[in-house]
Amino acid sequence: MCDAAFDQQDAEVVCRELDCGAPVQVLGEDAFGKGDAQMWTQEIQCRGNESQIHLCPTSPSHQLNCTSENNVGLICSGYTEAKLMNGSDSCSGRVELRFLNEWGSVCDACWDMRAASVLCRQLNCGIAVSVVGSDWFGEGSGEIWADVFDCDGNETKLSECSVSSWSRAECSHRRDVGVVCSESEAHLRNCSSPQTLNCSSTQ
User: 12-35: per-residue pLDDT in tens?
Assistant: First the structure.
């Protein structure tokens, strides 16, 4: 696929079709090497909500100067689902993300309130009021994800945040991060004791 004939909406469909979450970055200029397959001669014009790339309309791309030097590359987030485990309700608990087909907990060295608020919003749980350690919601038992999510805080889901790098921190299940969202019963119940949880305004 020629990089000039491929855009963000096309990338969203490809990542979705591959069950790889959302696009993180579209890369041109032969980022992953030259392909030996024939160059696609149609321009794909996805709206972004299609389930498969072949469902997108196409148009001739004769005006594009495409060679094997212009292959497009794509990085998908890989994270396709998220949940909070071992809390009093679905809006508090240990953060677990599904990367491709495998669930894992998240290292606390890679997590901040902005990422936590995006996760709460994704789960329809309001915003984050507290980020806590494994002493709150216990240790996980599967993989430990150490990606660093660079969220602005206003995204609707984690897959919209860029992933900057793998953390170099020593991560173990003793460092599994947990989140309490504003819609959690734990937050609403404990707001009379601000030293227990951050009970700042959730507006």
Answer: 899 888 888 878 888 876 678 777
156: exposed, middle or buried (Cβ count in 10 Å: 0-12, 13-18, 19+): exposed
| Tokens of residue 104, six digits | 């894992």
| Nearby residues of 126 by Cβ (< 8 Å), 6 or more positions away | 91, 120, 181, 182, 183, 202
Q: What's this model's pTM, rounded to 2 decimal places? A: 0.71
Handedness of CA 9, 49, 21, 108 (dihedral sign): positive
Max Cα-Cα span within the chain: 67
**What whole-number distance in Å separates Cα of residue 116 and Cα of residue 84?**
11
In sequence order, what are the residues at sequence separation of 6 or more whose Cβ sits closer than 8 angstroms to the Cβ of residue 36? none
Residue with tokens 């989140």: 179
Tell me how far apart the alpha carbons of residues 119 and 122 are, in angstroms, rounded to a whole number.
5
* Distances from the Cα of 202 to the Cα of 17, 39, 128, 190, angstroms: 36, 51, 8, 14
Q: What stretch of H or E contains 121?
A: helix 113-122
| 103-160: pLDDT as tens digits | 999 998 878 999 999 999 999 999 999 999 888 999 999 899 888 888 998 888 888 8
